[in-house]
Design goal:
By secondary structure, the protein is an alpha/beta fold. Helices cover 32% and strands 22% of the residues. The chain has 2 domains: 284 residues, Rossmann fold; 60 residues, no CATH class. The structure holds S-adenosylmethionine.
Length: 400
């Protein structure tokens, strides 16, 4: 996966071949249109207020692709929150020169406002927010396969790792005992599973949170992606894991198909990520689905979206609808050195379901998913927002 996506010359992302959007390989919330960035700008402005409107509020974006999200955020901040715009500086963590070039073209009008770093390591300690949309699912994972609940000496020996080999003139998976010490340590936490059960472990995401924790002095990390709590991720029925390969909006079963021309991704194990964050004093400020997260933001907008044009309303419906992006995506908010209550929000009221000792359910159960089926989702959203406002109990992520 590392080579297929990030080989300096042939990798799907590093070569600049990755294409996102209608005419590309897959959609993301960013590719739906500027609304996603505009809504997140409102969230960032509120974080800035919660951090006492500091002069040097840093937004770090990682996985910025062609810079569209940064453009949407900066444009919206400049128009809607000029003081916030003046106080912010935007840093993009981008390891690939070809993507840095494209981002600087997209963001030409914001020259001076943006700086680039090629890794989290190269980033100065900052106060502000780290943001990522679909970064974690694009990190290379270890594929593992159960040998069954046999009477082996250690839990570690119940799993093999799947490596890529070469057989009959083509790539093929080869199973071998796990030798990587970090992977061996991780699998001791996994439940016993029948022989042949396949799954993934994303150690890169855990390293990422280790690094980020050393750079975030005060503020937030907001990660949006598709994933599951650990219990759901490693559930009995998920016998083939979550690895997905796609190109031109089509799914492939094999990652050896169209290598370097197709996307490969895996769902995020949110529980492991949240636990690792908490070990670094990054506390879980909230965890919910995109539907609840965005309706929370909308409810606080000074100029709500009832009067938006048809295109914006369609984009909103795509972002919110439970059967499109609303429930498939989750939002994990981490906070450091910010009073716990300030990271509370009604959209996040079931916060920290990920790292409590209770059985992990992961997400709010009050998702109006079933109500939305066959109904005009947008009307319902506006109605929901109106009702919650009227009751005065719908507050944004960072409001007391
Ligand atoms: C699925 S795309 C998402 C792009 C964009 N955030 C969006 O939502 O449309 C994943 C992006 O993460 C980038 N990426 C992967 N690993 C990265 C890393 N370590 N640092 C920065 N970007 C990375 C890839 O190059 C790619 O642009």
């Amino acid at each position: 996966m590392q080579q297929a996506l990030y080989h300096p010359e042939h990798g799907y992302y590093s070569s600049g071949r990755a294409s996102i959007g209608r005419r590309g390989d897959y959609f993301t919330s960013v590719s739906i249109g500027p609304l996603f960035g505009q809504l997140l700008a409102a969230q960032f402005a509120q974080m800035w207020e919660r951090l006492d409107q500091i002069d040097n509020f840093v937004i770090v974006e990682q996985g910025a692709h062609h810079g569209d999200f940064a453009r949407d955020v900066l444009g919206s901040a400049r128009k809607g929150w000029p003081e916030f715009f003046a106080a912010l500086c935007y840093r993009i963590v981008e390891p690939f020169p070809i993507l840095q070039d494209r981002q600087s073209q997209t963001l030409a009008e914001y020259e001076g406002k943006i700086e680039w770093r090629d890794s989290i390591d190269a980033l100065e300690p900052f106060t502000g927010v780290h943001f990522s949309n679909e970064l974690l699912d694009a990190m290379p994972v270890h594929l593992i396969c159960s040998r069954g609940p046999v009477a082996y000496a250690t839990a570690g020996s119940q799993w093999n790792e799947k490596f890529v080999g070469w057989r009959n003139d083509q790539f093929a998976f080869v199973e071998q005992p796990i030798v990587d010490p970090a992977l061996r340590a991780f699998i001791t936490k996994l439940p016993s599973r029948p022989a042949g059960y396949k799954t993934e472990v994303n150690l890169a995401a855990l390293d990422w949170i280790d690094n980020l924790a050393t750079k975030l002095e005060r503020g937030y990390a907001l990660a949006i992606d598709y994933g599951h709590s650990r219990a759901e991720f490693y559930a009995h029925h998920r016998t083939n894991g979550t690895l997905q390969c796609r190109a031109q909006h089509r799914l492939f079963t094999s990652p050896f198909h169209e290598i370097g021309h197709a996307d490969i991704s895996a769902h995020v194990d949110w529980s492991s990520l949240a636990e690792r964050a908490e070990a670094h004093s990054l506390h879980v400020g909230g965890f919910t689905d995109q539907h609840h997260f965005i309706t929370g933001i909308i409810s606080e907008l000074a100029a709500p979206l009832e009067d938006a044009d048809a295109k914006t309303k369609r984009a909103l419906q795509t972002l919110l609808h439970p059967e499109i992006l609303g429930r498939a995506f989750q939002v994990l908010a981490l906070a450091k050195d910010v009073a716990a209550s300030t990271a509370a929000d009604s959209s996040f009221k079931q916060k920290n379901t990920l790292t409590t000792k209770r059985p992990v359910s992961g997400l709010p159960h009050h998702s109006p998913a079933s109500n939305l089926r066959g109904m005009n989702a947008l009307c319902l959203v506006f109605e929901l927002v109106r009702l919650r406002r009227a009751r005065g109990r719908f507050r944004l992520l960072l409001r007391h």
